[in-house]
Amino acid sequence: MNRLLASVSIAAVLAFAGAAMAEVKVGAPAPDFKATDSNGKTVALSEFKGKTVVMEWTNNGCPYVKKHYGAGNMQALQKKYTGEGVVWLTVASSPQGEQGYVTAAEANGDTKARGAAPTAVLLDSKSNIARLYEARNTPLMVVVDAKGQVAYMGAIDDKPTANPADIPGAKNYVAQALDELKAGKPVSVASTKAYGCYVKYAPQS
User: What pLDDT score was predicted for residue 23?
Assistant: First the structure.
Protein backbone atom coordinates (compact mmCIF):
# COMPACT_ATOMS: atom_id res chain seq x y z
CA MET A 1 0.00 0.00 0.00
CA ASN A 2 2.77 2.44 0.95
CA ARG A 3 4.63 1.56 -2.25
CA LEU A 4 1.46 2.28 -4.26
CA LEU A 5 0.96 5.63 -2.57
CA ALA A 6 4.59 6.54 -3.19
CA SER A 7 4.21 5.69 -6.87
CA VAL A 8 1.05 7.80 -7.12
CA SER A 9 2.78 10.71 -5.37
CA ILE A 10 5.80 10.54 -7.68
CA ALA A 11 3.52 10.41 -10.72
CA ALA A 12 1.61 13.44 -9.46
CA VAL A 13 4.83 15.40 -8.95
CA LEU A 14 6.07 14.49 -12.44
CA ALA A 15 2.73 15.44 -13.97
CA PHE A 16 2.81 18.79 -12.19
CA ALA A 17 6.37 19.44 -13.31
CA GLY A 18 5.42 18.56 -16.88
CA ALA A 19 2.47 20.95 -16.77
CA ALA A 20 4.61 23.73 -15.33
CA MET A 21 7.15 23.35 -18.16
CA ALA A 22 4.51 22.94 -20.90
CA GLU A 23 5.65 24.39 -24.19
CA VAL A 24 4.30 27.84 -25.02
CA LYS A 25 2.53 27.52 -28.36
CA VAL A 26 1.40 30.06 -30.92
CA GLY A 27 -2.39 30.16 -30.96
CA ALA A 28 -2.64 29.00 -27.34
CA PRO A 29 -3.42 31.22 -24.34
CA ALA A 30 -0.40 33.19 -23.13
CA PRO A 31 0.59 32.06 -19.62
CA ASP A 32 -0.40 34.68 -17.06
CA PHE A 33 2.06 36.06 -14.54
CA LYS A 34 2.59 38.79 -11.98
CA ALA A 35 5.83 40.74 -11.68
CA THR A 36 7.14 43.93 -10.15
CA ASP A 37 8.14 46.65 -12.57
CA SER A 38 11.01 49.12 -12.24
CA ASN A 39 8.69 51.62 -10.51
CA GLY A 40 7.60 49.14 -7.84
CA LYS A 41 4.20 48.43 -9.38
CA THR A 42 2.79 44.92 -9.63
CA VAL A 43 1.97 44.09 -13.22
CA ALA A 44 -0.11 41.11 -14.38
CA LEU A 45 -0.44 40.07 -17.99
CA SER A 46 -4.14 39.41 -17.45
CA GLU A 47 -4.79 43.09 -16.69
CA PHE A 48 -4.16 43.88 -20.36
CA LYS A 49 -6.85 41.58 -21.72
CA GLY A 50 -8.42 43.20 -24.76
CA LYS A 51 -5.14 44.81 -25.79
CA THR A 52 -2.24 43.61 -27.88
CA VAL A 53 0.88 43.04 -25.76
CA VAL A 54 4.53 42.78 -26.79
CA MET A 55 7.01 41.10 -24.46
CA GLU A 56 10.67 41.86 -25.15
CA TRP A 57 13.43 40.05 -23.28
CA THR A 58 16.43 42.31 -22.75
CA ASN A 59 20.03 42.24 -21.50
CA ASN A 60 21.82 45.59 -21.51
CA GLY A 61 25.21 43.91 -21.98
CA CYS A 62 24.19 41.73 -24.93
CA PRO A 63 25.58 42.87 -28.31
CA TYR A 64 22.42 41.70 -30.08
CA VAL A 65 20.31 43.88 -27.79
CA LYS A 66 22.78 46.75 -28.21
CA LYS A 67 22.41 46.37 -31.98
CA HIS A 68 18.73 47.29 -31.83
CA TYR A 69 18.95 49.91 -29.08
CA GLY A 70 22.16 51.50 -30.37
CA ALA A 71 20.57 52.01 -33.77
CA GLY A 72 17.33 53.30 -32.24
CA ASN A 73 15.38 50.42 -33.78
CA MET A 74 13.82 49.02 -30.59
CA GLN A 75 12.87 52.48 -29.32
CA ALA A 76 11.24 53.34 -32.65
CA LEU A 77 9.13 50.18 -32.45
CA GLN A 78 8.15 50.91 -28.86
CA LYS A 79 7.12 54.49 -29.62
CA LYS A 80 5.21 53.65 -32.77
CA TYR A 81 3.19 50.78 -31.35
CA THR A 82 2.54 52.08 -27.83
CA GLY A 83 1.25 55.16 -29.65
CA GLU A 84 -1.24 52.84 -31.34
CA GLY A 85 -2.39 51.38 -28.00
CA VAL A 86 -0.09 48.36 -27.82
CA VAL A 87 1.26 47.44 -24.38
CA TRP A 88 5.04 46.90 -24.45
CA LEU A 89 6.63 44.97 -21.59
CA THR A 90 10.43 44.83 -21.49
CA VAL A 91 11.54 41.87 -19.36
CA ALA A 92 14.93 41.70 -17.60
CA SER A 93 15.38 38.08 -16.50
CA SER A 94 19.11 38.02 -15.66
CA PRO A 95 19.77 36.93 -12.06
CA GLN A 96 22.02 38.90 -9.75
CA GLY A 97 25.67 38.43 -10.65
CA GLU A 98 24.97 37.71 -14.34
CA GLN A 99 25.23 40.00 -17.35
CA GLY A 100 22.04 41.99 -17.77
CA TYR A 101 20.99 42.02 -14.12
CA VAL A 102 19.58 45.42 -13.18
CA THR A 103 18.11 46.99 -10.10
CA ALA A 104 14.98 49.08 -10.45
CA ALA A 105 17.03 52.28 -10.51
CA GLU A 106 19.41 50.86 -13.10
CA ALA A 107 16.51 49.72 -15.28
CA ASN A 108 15.00 53.19 -15.19
CA GLY A 109 18.42 54.67 -15.92
CA ASP A 110 18.79 52.42 -18.97
CA THR A 111 15.32 53.37 -20.21
CA LYS A 112 16.12 57.08 -19.93
CA ALA A 113 19.60 56.78 -21.45
CA ARG A 114 18.30 54.75 -24.37
CA GLY A 115 15.33 57.02 -24.99
CA ALA A 116 13.22 53.88 -24.73
CA ALA A 117 9.46 53.92 -24.37
CA PRO A 118 8.14 50.59 -23.00
CA THR A 119 4.91 50.53 -21.05
CA ALA A 120 6.86 48.92 -18.20
CA VAL A 121 10.17 47.21 -17.46
CA LEU A 122 9.57 44.00 -15.54
CA LEU A 123 12.22 42.81 -13.09
CA ASP A 124 12.43 39.03 -13.38
CA SER A 125 15.71 38.28 -11.58
CA LYS A 126 14.32 34.97 -10.28
CA SER A 127 13.68 34.02 -13.95
CA ASN A 128 10.04 33.10 -13.26
CA ILE A 129 8.65 34.70 -16.43
CA ALA A 130 11.60 33.44 -18.45
CA ARG A 131 10.87 29.86 -17.36
CA LEU A 132 7.16 30.29 -18.03
CA TYR A 133 7.85 31.36 -21.62
CA GLU A 134 10.97 29.22 -22.06
CA ALA A 135 12.93 32.36 -22.95
CA ARG A 136 16.35 31.36 -24.23
CA ASN A 137 17.69 34.44 -26.00
CA THR A 138 17.80 38.21 -25.82
CA PRO A 139 16.01 39.75 -27.54
CA LEU A 140 13.19 37.17 -27.57
CA MET A 141 9.96 38.77 -28.79
CA VAL A 142 6.46 37.57 -27.95
CA VAL A 143 3.25 39.14 -29.24
CA VAL A 144 0.01 38.40 -27.38
CA ASP A 145 -3.21 39.34 -29.17
CA ALA A 146 -6.30 40.99 -27.70
CA LYS A 147 -7.81 37.56 -26.97
CA GLY A 148 -4.85 36.72 -24.75
CA GLN A 149 -3.35 34.22 -27.19
CA VAL A 150 0.25 34.00 -28.35
CA ALA A 151 0.19 35.44 -31.88
CA TYR A 152 3.92 35.56 -32.53
CA MET A 153 7.02 34.24 -30.79
CA GLY A 154 10.66 34.35 -31.87
CA ALA A 155 13.23 36.71 -33.33
CA ILE A 156 12.80 40.43 -33.85
CA ASP A 157 13.85 40.10 -37.49
CA ASP A 158 15.43 37.83 -40.08
CA LYS A 159 19.01 39.07 -39.69
CA PRO A 160 20.57 37.07 -36.81
CA THR A 161 23.63 39.26 -36.41
CA ALA A 162 24.90 41.89 -33.97
CA ASN A 163 25.61 44.34 -36.81
CA PRO A 164 23.36 47.46 -36.81
CA ALA A 165 24.03 47.85 -40.55
CA ASP A 166 21.80 44.82 -41.13
CA ILE A 167 18.68 46.47 -39.67
CA PRO A 168 17.53 48.54 -42.68
CA GLY A 169 17.39 45.49 -44.97
CA ALA A 170 15.80 43.17 -42.41
CA LYS A 171 12.24 41.87 -42.30
CA ASN A 172 10.91 42.88 -38.90
CA TYR A 173 8.68 40.05 -37.74
CA VAL A 174 7.30 41.99 -34.76
CA ALA A 175 6.22 45.00 -36.81
CA GLN A 176 4.69 42.67 -39.40
CA ALA A 177 2.72 40.76 -36.75
CA LEU A 178 1.47 43.94 -35.08
CA ASP A 179 0.41 45.50 -38.37
CA GLU A 180 -1.43 42.35 -39.40
CA LEU A 181 -3.25 42.11 -36.07
CA LYS A 182 -4.28 45.76 -36.33
CA ALA A 183 -5.66 45.11 -39.81
CA GLY A 184 -7.63 42.10 -38.54
CA LYS A 185 -5.50 39.67 -40.53
CA PRO A 186 -3.92 36.42 -39.34
CA VAL A 187 -0.23 36.68 -38.52
CA SER A 188 1.52 35.34 -41.60
CA VAL A 189 4.80 34.46 -39.84
CA ALA A 190 3.80 33.37 -36.34
CA SER A 191 6.94 31.59 -35.15
CA THR A 192 10.66 31.95 -35.83
CA LYS A 193 13.90 30.94 -34.11
CA ALA A 194 15.05 33.66 -31.71
CA TYR A 195 18.68 34.75 -31.85
CA GLY A 196 20.92 36.60 -29.43
CA CYS A 197 22.62 36.07 -26.08
CA TYR A 198 21.57 33.16 -23.92
CA VAL A 199 19.32 33.88 -20.95
CA LYS A 200 20.97 32.64 -17.76
CA TYR A 201 18.36 31.43 -15.31
CA ALA A 202 18.42 31.97 -11.57
CA PRO A 203 18.57 28.76 -9.50
CA GLN A 204 15.13 27.44 -8.63
CA SER A 205 14.31 27.74 -4.96
Answer: 73
What is the number of domains present in the chain? 1
Closest-CA residue to 154 (of 172, 131, 129): 172
Q: How confident is the model at residue 8 (pLDDT cuts 50, 70, 90)?
A: very low
In this structure, the number of other CB atoms found within 10 A of the CB of residue 164 comes to 15
Separation CA 148–CA 175 (nearest Å): 18
Cα–Cα distance, 123 to 75 (Å, whole number): 19
Let me know if residue 125 belongs to a domain: yes
Classify each residue of 15-28 as buried b or exposed e, where b means 16 or more C-beta atoms within 10 Å of its C-beta.
eeeeeeeeeeeeee
> Between 95 and 204, where is the model more confident?
95
| 87-97 pLDDT tens trace | 999 999 999 99
Structural domain including 45 reads 24-198
